[in-house]
Design brief:
The protein contains nine helices and 16 strands. With 304 residues, the protein is of the alpha+beta class. The chain is globular and about 60 Å long.
């Protein structure tokens, strides 16, 4: 459990989950990460215990917390359960996991593992999206606003508008898909693996997104006013009407700056975490599925 994640009090969340698990009689242990920097080590310890007991690892937190746990779990043979406690919870919502802590814990008791396809950029897994350009700026500013004004979707929206108002320096990228390379000039390249997030932006989604294919969105190098307009359309779920957006549905994409400098690294955002990664960036569907504990039909909530 990420003790720093979510809007509910951590003690309230912990007690709600433990009450359900104790009543079930199922063996369990709750490990808390007091800060994001401790997530990886905590997840490794949880995985060690799960392997010893032929059990599952459960991630309690938002998309960033779940991502940190998945880095350790994928390829281990152990299933992953979710107790969503973040602001958006895109990954959990895509698979019908309740957001109420007690309901989510109850759903875990009847869940069954299902292989789920996730994305990878370099050696980093992503569940929801990966991006370069403007989007990492948006995330950095959003976290600063949350620390100052609290965690809410409204605060996230206002911080995004403030970031866009500053404008952004466009990038020249070379994108390679299936052996063919094309040059683009863009303010941000966004690669999504989550149908719900794309639907909320108003982008058309087919069944393969999140199930073996990724949606790469190239945003034109607009000025501040046009970027603000585009952001408002996204907030209203109308990005699908923006004819200037370029979209590529891919299994694998190689990204490099058009003008390559020695030892160049690019800033990449993956599920809310910002990293500097060497180029070229190889973005692809992960070759190994994640074995996700998906709620039984009677426990699943509507995707929204």
């Amino acid at each position: 459990m990420n003790a720093a994640s979510g809007r509910l009090d951590v003690a309230e969340r912990r007690d709600a989950v433990l009450s359900v698990l104790r009543a079930s009689g199922r063996e369990h242990a709750l490990l808390e990460a007091p800060e994001p920097a401790a997530l990886a080590a905590t997840a490794r310890e949880a995985l060690r215990r799960a392997i010893e007991r032929d059990g599952a690892v459960v991630a309690a937190g938002g998309d960033g917390t779940i991502n940190a746990v998945v880095q350790q779990v994928i390829g281990s043979g152990r299933p992953l359960g979710l107790l969503p406690q973040g602001t958006f919870n895109y990954f959990a919502r895509a698979h019908g996991v309740p957001t109420d802590p007690a309901d989510a814990a109850g759903a875990l008791l009847r869940a069954r593992p299902v292989p789920i396809r996730v994305g990878r950029v370099g050696d980093r897994v992503f569940l929801v999206n990966a991006s370069v350009g403007l989007y990492p700026d948006l995330l950095e500013d959003r976290e600063a606003w949350k620390r100052r004004f609290g965690r809410s979707r409204f605060v996230a929206l206002l911080s995004g508008l403030a970031t866009l108002a500053r404008g952004v320096r466009p990038m020249r990228l070379a994108l390679t898909v299936g052996g063919a390379t094309r040059g683009v000039r863009t303010s941000t390249l966004f690669v999504g693996n989550n149908a719900i997030q794309l639907e909320r932006l108003g982008l058309p989604v087919d069944a393969s997104i999140g199930d073996g294919r990724l949606a790469a969105i190239v945003v034109p190098p607009y000025g501040a006013l046009r970027l603000l307009g585009l952001a408002l359309r996204g907030a209203l779920g109308e990005l699908g009407d923006a004819a200037s957006l370029q979209r590529l549905d891919v299994e694998r994409l190689v990204v490099r700056p058009s003008r390559l400098r020695p030892r160049l690294r690019m800033r990449v955002a993956t599920d809310g975490e910002i990293l500097r990664m060497p180029v070229p960036l190889r973005v692809e569907v992960h070759p190994q599925p994640l074995h996700l504990l998906v709620p039984a039909p009677q426990d699943a909530v509507e995707r929204r």
